[in-house]
Amino acid sequence: MAGAALTGGLRLSDLGLTEYEISALLLSLKVALASVAFSLPVGIFCAWLLARKEFRGKALFDSLLHLPLVLPPVVTGYLLLVAMGRQGLIGKYLYDWFGLSFSFSWRGAALASALVSFPLMVRAIRQAFEAVDPGLEQAARTLGAGRWRVFCSITLPLSLAGIISGMVLAFARSLGEFGATITFVSNIPGETRTLPLAMFSFIETPGAEAQAARLCVIAIGIALLALLASQYLSRRVHSARGTEC
Amino acid sequence: MLNIKLEKRLGDVCLKVDASLPLKGVTAVFGLSGAGKSSLINMLAGLVTPDSGSIALGQEWLFNSEQGINLAVEKRRTGYVFQDARLFPHYKVRGNLNYGNKDKDPVHFDRIVALLGLESLLERYPATLSGGEKQRVAMGRALLSRPRLLLLDEPLASLDAPRKRELLPYLQALAEHLAIPIIYVSHSLDEILQLADRLLVLERGQQVACGPLQQVWDSQALRPWVEAPAQGSLLLAEIGEVHPEYNMTRLRLGDNAELWVSGRLTNVGDSVRVRVHSQQVSVCLQRPEGSSIRNILAVTLAEIRQQDEDRVRLKLALAGTHLWANITPWARDELGLTVGQTLFAQIKGLSIGAEDIAPAHLLKRFS
């Protein structure tokens, strides 16, 4: 049903997908989109701090941000469980005060994906910010623009291509998230069983190799689509500027 | 007045400036690269913070280290034209011009656009503009932010000679129309001659001279940077008439002294500044007759200065001002020159061309 809304009349089942596959696919998309949407503002802020500011402990901050990239995902998932579970250090208060729970829900999967894909996003956006000539920002300030206007009218638009590529990277990484997700929120059909988890379940099941292969093709298709979309978007960003500069 | 009193350590150079500039007119900041010229205007704009001192624009402090005042860049309202233009690549020319244009007054916008000849560029992106066009847009953008102080950091330095010639009239128009102080950083004496009223000379961070152009030009401050062939005198003159038969114009220097220069200057009555190259001035003890030289002026020898072993500089008093002549030590000895003597200075009409004549706009503005 949700599939019809997503593809505008064309039902995903018309593509020959099974109900099970559609459920995993839509859940994966929901988790990845939520993960990117919520980590983007924080990611932009952290990238800006790293690209434009000097402060004490910057190297440590940078390393901490990169930690999920090098930690085994199962460690990230375990830490999430300890911190954000319903009995966790932070999760307890979130549940008591706001009724917000991450355990065994798609929100937890999105949180795990966001954490694991965060370093990739920040790296790409930071590089884009660093590529913006600070001289342009200075020029904008001499024209009377405060820091916030300089950021919104100069820094952000000029690094848009990099931000888009950071979002796509994070989106793709979220789609593929496995270890932290299964550790933190388990493998619950319809709730936390995203594409990789569904594929893992099929591989675990004897005689389900064909189903696993079908999911594999779907995963490749989505990744390709995301990359193509990002190329199209960044080309549009550049062509809006007359010629290359 | 714009009162500047600053100190700033820059590596192993200590920049020290103490200047008081009028609230109108162009002050050129001259010096070699590394002398601290750009740092000085960056401090005026607020992009660099001085170690100590103060900047007062009229009644307002832009910076005062004792009172702890350091006005933010965006609150200073200083128009800044950078050497590399720094146009915003994602805005069209119109968007660039309007970036700092708060009141959006269409009359003011059109006036600036017309002054800088930007009408045909408005819908183009900066990437498609030539270097000279970019600089004109950068000037327009700075002016439309209604600055109280205009800073120009070598706006012509990155351009080739034809582009410089194309841009110079626009700069002269700015200098003439704006009633705000303009600080013009340059290492080109030709540009300074064409544009500036006042000159501030920096040498390794130290301010070695600051004052009206003519006065600094005549002083010793510029000597180290001026090659002998480029040495010259600056004279104020008024445009007289064009010769009825020849392509030459008479300039009046006052006190019935006059100078014929090549070319036609048609703004009769305008004040101009004329540069006379010292190498092109020779002296005679008697008024020469039957000479091809068009300008023979009676002068009084005011000073004899040994420049180096090849050259002697003569300071010749003429109509309330001074004319410098470079001669050889041999000529000095043979003529037996003494201070106070009357001499006849000869200047070839062809040696003074368009590049040596600049409008003396300030004098006109205030007289």
From TrEMBL, chain B:
Q: What range does the record give for the signal peptide?
A: none
InterPro entries assigned to the protein according to its UniProt record, in alphabetical order: AAA+_ATPase, ABC_transporter-like_ATP-bd, ABC_transporter-like_CS, Mo/tungstate-bd_C_term_dom, ModC_ABC_ATP-bd, Molybdenum_import_ModC, Mop_domain, P-loop_NTPase
Q: Does the keyword Membrane apply?
A: yes
Annotated Gene Ontology MF terms?
A: ABC-type transporter activity; ATP binding; ATP hydrolysis activity; molybdate ion transmembrane transporter activity
Which top-rank group of organisms is this from?
Bacteria
Domain Mop, residue spans: 290-356
Q: What is this protein called?
A: Molybdenum ABC transporter ATP-binding protein ModC
Gene that this sequence comes from = modC
